[in-house]
Amino acid sequence: MSTQIFTLPLRPVSGAAYPQTVLSTQAAGARDKEIWAVVPAEAISWHRVSLPAGLQKQSNRMAAALQSLMEERLLDEPDLLHLSLQPEWQANSPAWVAACNKAWLQQHLSQLQAKGHVVHRIVPEWAPVSQSGAMSAWVSGAPEDAWLWVSDTQEAWCLPLEAGVKFWIEKIQSAGSKQDIPANLVIQADPAVAELAQKALRQMQTFNQTDTTDRLSTWRVEVQSSVQRYAQSAATNWDLAQFEFAAHGSARWLQKANRIWQNFAKSPAWQGARWGFGLLVLAQFLGLNVAAWQLNAQAKLQRDFQKSILTQTFPNVTVVDAPLQMAKELERLQRNSGAASPRDLEWVLQSVGAALPAGQRIANIDFKVQGNGETRLQGLQLSESQGTAFVQALRKQGLDAQASGTQWRIVGQKAGF
Predict the structure, then answer these.
(1) Whole-angstrom Cα distance, residue 383 to residue 387?
(2) Are 86 and 95 in contact (CB under 8 A)?
(3) Residue 106 sits in the same domain as residue 139
(4) For labeling, which of 189, 270, 320, 414 is most exposed (least CB within 10 Å)?
(5) What is the spatial distance between Cα 204 and Cα 208, in angstroms, rounded to a whole number?
C-alpha cells in the first residue's frame, strides 16, 4: 500500500493554482495506492453543534440535518458549502462540523481526477481538538502576516498574532480556575514565524497572575515544517470526504483498515493491548509446541512398543516397518499352518455365505490374491438396510465391502497392531 498526499492551494501561488504533491510514501511495486488531499486551514470554518439521536441509522438524512442546523451559523447559503462531521460523534453531544466552499473543493478534485488521481480521503490541515480538557495552538504565516489558531473542546478561533495573544490573555483572565488552563501545552509554529511565536509565549508567561503562572511556565513552542504538519493531519481520524464527496470502492475500505492498523500498532493508548496480544500469541505458540512434543512422544512410544512386540515374537526379523512386517509374518504363519485368513478365497466365501440374507444369488465371482486379496461379487440385489447389515457382518470377519450397483468389492482389512 502506498500513499500520495496533495495540498489544495487556497489561491494561486506564483501562477500555480493546481494541487501539489507534498508527501509521498509510494513503495516500489505497490499494487494499491491511496490519494489524500489536504485542505488548507484558511479554507475551513469550524462550528460546534449537537445532533439529535437516531441520525446514525439514517445516513441519508444526515446532510439535510446538518444544513438545517448550520443555516443560521453560516455567512453563505448551506447549499454552497460542503459540510463534514467529526468522526465517531455522539448523539445529543456537541460535535465539530467543518464547512468549506463546495465549488472550490470540487474544482481541485476534478483537476486531480483529470490527471488520473482519484482522491480517497480529504483531511484538514488544522482541526480543533475533540478530547475533553485538551487544547491546541498553532502560529502560521509569515513575519508580516502571522496568525494564531487556538481550539479547545468548546470553541476554535483564529486571529492575527498580536490580536490573538491579547484575546487569549483575556480568556485566561476570565478562566474560572487554573484547572481550566492546560499544562505542558505545545504551541506549534511555522519556521518563518518561530521567533514571533516565542516572543508571544514570553509575553503571555510574564502576565502577572500567580495562580496561572505555574501553568503557563510549562508551555513551549515547537517548530514544525509544512510537510510535518501535513503528515500529522493525515494521521488523524478526520475525513472530509463525506456525502457527495465520499469515496467508494475497495480503496476506501483498505485505507480505513490501514488507519485502524496504524493506530493499533503505534498509538501509546494501545500499548497495553499490543503487549497482551503479543503474550497471547506467544502463549499459543508455546502451547502448540508443547502439544506437538507430547504427540511426538506418544507416537514414538507407540512405535517402540510395536518394535518390541515384533522383536519378541519374531527375534530373527530385522525391524524396518514393524506393523507391515508383523502382518506379513502372521500371514506366513497362517499359510504354513494351513489356517485360512481374510486374504484367502475360502475365508471370503464362508464370511459372505454367513452374512448374506436368504434368497440371494451370486452370478459371478472374481478373485485376486495380490495385496490384501480382492474379491468381486456380481448379481446381488440388496436393499439399503440389507447392504448395511452385510457390510457390518463382513467387517467383524476382517473384511471391507463396498458396493457399486449390483457389484460388490470385498478386500481384507489392513493388518496392524
Answers:
(1) 6
(2) yes
(3) no
(4) 320
(5) 9
